[in-house]
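User: Sequence in, structure out. Go.
Assistant: Echoing your sequence, followed by the structure tokens.
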Amino acid sequence: AALTLDPLHAGALQSLAEADADSGRIASAAQGYVQALLVEHDASGRTALFARLGRLWEDQLKNPDEAGVCYDHAIHLGGGVGGPEAADLMARALQHYRRQGRPDRALAVIERLLPSTQDPHELAALWTERGAILASSSDEDRAVEAYDMALSYDPGNRGAITGLSQILEKRGDWEQLAQIFEARTEAGSPDERAEALRALARMASAHLHDAERTARYLKAAIELQPTREDYEQLLALYGDDPARFEEKLDVLAGLLSVDGPFMPRLIEFGRGLIARGDRRWAWCVLSPLMNSTLSDPQLKALVLELRKEFEKSDNVAALSSQAHVAARLPAAAG
């Protein structure tokens, strides 16, 4: 009825466009928004129209470039939308400016989003994004400030930690970098704490050249969330040091519990037990090799020697004549 009285009524054209969008008539809805823009002269009204047309392009027509043009017009006009709709527009515009590589516009959007954002994780994400933009623009001091703000809202924010770490590592500020990761080892999930410990281990190894400190961090990470790489790094650190022999055996046992290749580690573990004097335990570990074809003559001789030592007939002579029955058929033994 409104269009019958006034064919160029922007509000009526917008209402029809929204009805078309709700009914799935996307092309008709887009046309309706464009027609409304042609006759809407109020800046606030045009802002809202551009925002809604942009959402239609992005969500329904899957064209982020056209959507970005609409968001850009809406941001340039300013005003007209409020509350959740304004926050949605800003977030979408930020993504558009990211894709387009327009840091100044992206920073401006972040500045407008920060005062209206309440959720700590969302605030951390915005400050992290700001830090990343500033870091890419070589403004490292302001980037560090942004990352610090992000971590004040969310101490476990990986993007902020990674970005800040890169800057501090570039500067060679190992003391502050260590403080960041040390703080992370005291809070967060086991996985996050283990990652922080691994980062400390890498720093201690590569930059501080402190093997003891590296080993300490790796062992702490293993207690939280063991990985094959943790164990292998410890083995490399221990090498053939006789003082580390017992620890090396523990690491080999741990490595066998998480990942392969199992046979080389099993053989190394068995030989370590023999070197320690635990021949019976070594036989328990290496006895499965009796069913394998051993190409190493020394290993073959060792396994045969252990077999002769621990598979003697007199080792079972003292057993009851019914022992074999009890082992196979426990019920029958009763």
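User: And one key feature?
Assistant: The first helix runs from residue 2 to 5.
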